[in-house]
Amino acid sequence: MPELPEVETMRRGILSIVGKRITAAERVPCPRKPILVAPGPAAFRKRTVGRKVTAVDRLGKRVVVRLEGGDSIILEPRMTGLVLLADPPTTEHLRFRFEFDDGRNVYYWDRRGLGSVRLYSEKELAQRYDDGTLGPDALAVERAAFETRLKPSRREIKVALLDQRAVAGIGNLYASEILHAAFIDPRRRCTRLKSDDWDRLFAAMRDVLLTAVKYEGSTLSDGTYRNALNKAGGYQNQHRVYDREKSPCGTCTTPIVRIVQAQRATFYCPTCQGRGKQSFAKPISGKRKK
DNA sequence: CCCCAGTCCTGCGGGC
DNA sequence: TGCCCGCAGGACTGGG
Hints:
Strand order of the largest sheet: 2-9-5-4-3
Number of strands: 11
Shape: globular
CATH superfamily of the largest domain: MutM-like, N-terminal
CATH class of the largest domain: Alpha Beta
Low-confidence stretches: 278-290
Radius of gyration: 21 Å
Order of helices and strands: HEEHEEEEEEEHHHHHEE
Mean pLDDT: 90
Structural class: alpha+beta
Strand content: 15-25%
CATH architecture of the largest domain: Alpha-Beta Barrel
């Protein structure tokens, strides 16, 4: 489930294509239902082959390959998509291939095929994303804006964190991890969070995401997620709550609880993140020193 | 406007 | 043992 750390790892993994020229761009014969590729094969080829890559960026959970002339290729992995320099794990789910003038290939591989490969002109890209459908990146947003964008929502904080219009990049896995690191009950309403809650939440968001990027993302037990060199990530070994129902909380040993919010699983520690227990995380005032 | 439920898709694991 | 159903959760859509 590529979220910010996984997509950032994909981005970094193919950075070496910057300055290279595309020599081929083609849908790969795949027995599965084809993913969305836009525009059609001929126009896609015509507008990409011969162009040089000027940058590889990230837009929330999408990889953006910028081309000279202003066009951009958006690789959107959704649930099971991979962006690879290495040979794909299977040919069965290989969807798209780019070839470069140094002889290397970048593959888009996608088991479930919910993802897409799209080409946008500068104008189309602006129309698609500059209208607020994507909020500021979770690693770029400032503390004040973070609170301002989330606080008015009447939703539960876990659900609000998944809204890419508020802040871009957080998905289901990291939302649970971030809230645990911030000692905040995932069911609390945004409107009810206090200033020090936002302080801890913002710090936890940065800490969890930056650490997860360092570990090159999370490869869950299904093994799907891989970096560009087809290597598993390492952050799954650092998970405190996600997919750890009934396991002891690493902080207090209370069994982790699984609930469902907005049709998605949430994992949390009822002790560390219990309602009204947020003082657990606050520094103890000096006079109690023993 | 705000929010939620349903949809897409495939592979896996639980239950019988 | 084998089969079937439900679940996983990205982003989008339709409806209340």
